[in-house]
Amino acid sequence: MNVMITGASGGLGRVLATECAMRGYNLFLTDINRAGLLSLKQGLERQYKVCIAAKACDLTKSESVDELVSFIDLHGIRFDMLINVAGIDFEGGFLGQEREKITKIVALNNEAALRITHDILLRRRPGRQFVLIFVSSLASMYPMPLKATYAASKRFLLDFALALRQELKNQNATVLTLCPGGLVTTKEAMRGISAQGFWGNATTNSLEIVARKTINHALKGKSIYIPGLLNRTLSLLGKILPRSLIAALIYLRWSKAQVKWLR
């Protein structure tokens, strides 16, 4: 199986790459972090007997993606799976953030995902089932004050993935959306989890377990995977309670947590 992973040098991307390599899948890894990408490639090649290609790319820039796609075509690479991991968030309320940071969230989380998904879907390996995975978030289930842009960008991915799944249903392709709670991917993420206290820890998921079960669910043709019983329960509450009430409750929780976080 030939698998492409975006955002591969980040916490979740690295663990997903490792999980795929353990399964014997060939990998094409991309990330804006060239040094991190090379380190990951070399590490996986030492441990696993799989073919691994890597090329740095800024997915928010069309010309950079065009260069990546040209590299793929030059080497005649075709794919069985695409895992869209690349994403970003900046903490703080809407007016407390710089304008360019706000738009960067949408540029990477949404525009970049659409750009690379469109190109790779046109480069599927003929005659084989294609698996497409989007990394959304539990945040996609709610309107989230103080994380408004991020949550909305993840909601876009969830809705887009569900709609695209129907479009591809008769084309031997399946689409899974991963909606995790907290993930220990960076020091900043760890601070955020700690600042939320009990709820931060209770909704946090193990990277290794999430990676393994994400691939398993995708191969079984599932549409959504929300890791953790508590997270699945919270997602159900998000469908039952009025969205205005949810927004108010989330604001109360996040306004306290972010004070600790941003210190």
Secondary structure elements and their pairing?
Layout: E1 2-5, H1 11-22, E2 26-29, H2 34-47, E3 52-54, H3 62-74, E4 81-84, H4 99-121, E5 130-135, H5 148-167, E6 173-178, E7 182-183, H6 187-195, H7 198-202, E8 204-205, H8 207-219, E9 224-225, H9 229-240, H10 243-262
Parallel strand pairs: 1-2, 1-4, 2-3, 4-5, 5-6, 6-9, 7-8
Helix pairs in contact: 1-8, 4-5, 6-10
How many separate structural domains? 1
Q: Which structural class is indicated by helix and strand composition? A: alpha/beta
Helix content range:
40-55%
How confident is the prediction overall: mean pLDDT?
89
Strand content bin: 5-15%
Q: Give the total of beta strands.
A: 9
How far apart are the termini?
45 Å
SSE pattern, N- to C-terminal: EHEHEHEHEHEEHHEHEHH
**CATH homology-level superfamily:** NAD(P)-binding Rossmann-like Domain
Strand order of the largest sheet: 3-2-1-4-5-6-9
Q: Return residue spans where pLDDT drops below 50 for at least 5 consecutive residues.
A: none
Q: What is the radius of gyration?
A: 18 Å
- In the CATH scheme, the class would be Alpha Beta
The DSSP helix count reads 10
Describe this structure in words.
- α1 packs across α8 and α4 runs parallel beside α5 (148-167).
- 37% of the residues are buried.
- It is built from ten helices and nine strands.
- The mean pLDDT is 89.
- With 263 residues, the protein is of the alpha/beta class.
- α1 links the parallel β1 (2-5) and β2 (26-29).
- It has a single domain, classed as Rossmann fold, CATH 3.40.50.720.
- The termini are far apart.
- The strands form two sheets. It has a seven-stranded parallel beta sheet, with helices on both faces. A two-stranded parallel ribbon has the order 7-8.
- It has helices at 11-22, 34-47, 62-74, 99-121, 148-167, 187-195, 198-202, 207-219, 229-240, 243-262, and strands at 2-5, 26-29, 52-54, 81-84, 130-135, 173-178, 182-183, 204-205, 224-225.
